[in-house]
Amino acid sequence: MTTNEPAQEPRNPQAPLTERSLKVIVADDQATVREPLAAVLDMTEDIDVVAAAADGTEVLAAVAATPVDVVLMDLRMPVMDGTEATRRLSEDHPGTAVVVLTTFADDDSILAALSAGARGYLTKNAGRQDIVRAIRAAAAGQSVLDQEVQNRLLATVRTRPPADAQPLPPDLTRREREVLTLIGQGLPNQAIAEKLFISEATVKTHINNLFAKAGIQDRADAVRRAITAGLA
Fold first, then answer.
1. Chain-centre distance of CA 186, in angstroms?
2. Tell me, what's the pLDDT at 122?
3. N or C: which end of the chain has fewer CB within 10 A?
4. CB atoms within 10 A of CB 36
C-alpha cells in the first residue's frame, strides 16, 4: 500500500522469500471488502500489498507492471472475472500464485478456479491468519483449501471422477502412498505429520517426490488421484 514513509531500497524479486516481503495484490470488486483487507494484510510483517484491483483486467495490468508473488482473487467481478484472470495469469505469469477468496463454494466455482490454476481456495469466512497462511503457502508452491472446499471437492470427485484419470506409477514408496491417502482424506501437512509420526518437513519431501513421480500438479489434483486410485 502507498504510504508517506521514506523510500526504501528496492527489494530483489529474485531473492529467497525468507529474505523479502511477499508482494501481494488484493482483487475484489467491492471497495468495502478490498480496501480494509488490503490494509490489514499490509500490516503483516512479511506481506507487502502492492495494489488493490477491482476486476481481472486491473489484476493483469498490475502484474504486468510489477512482479507479484500472490494474487488474492475474488471470483465474481465485472469486466473480467476471477476465473478468467487466474487462467491468464497461469499462462502468462506462472510465477504468480493465485489464492481465491470468495463467498462462492459451489462445485462448479471450485472446479473452474482450480482448473484455471488457483493454488488456494478460501471462503470469505476465513480468518486473517487463515488468509495469511494461505498466501505464504501459495508463495512457497503449496496449496491450501478451505475445509468446506476440501469436503466439497472430495464429494465432487467421488460422484464425478475424471474421465482421463491416470493410474499411479508403480514406483511409489509405501510412505508416499500413505501420504497420498491422507491428502485424499483432506488432511493438511501438519495433520499428516502427526498421523505418521514424522516431521512436517519430511511430509513436504514425500509430497514433492510423490508429485514428481505421479505427475501431480497440485493438492487438488492429488485429491482427485487419491480418490480415483481407491486410496480415499
1. 15
2. 94
3. N
4. 11
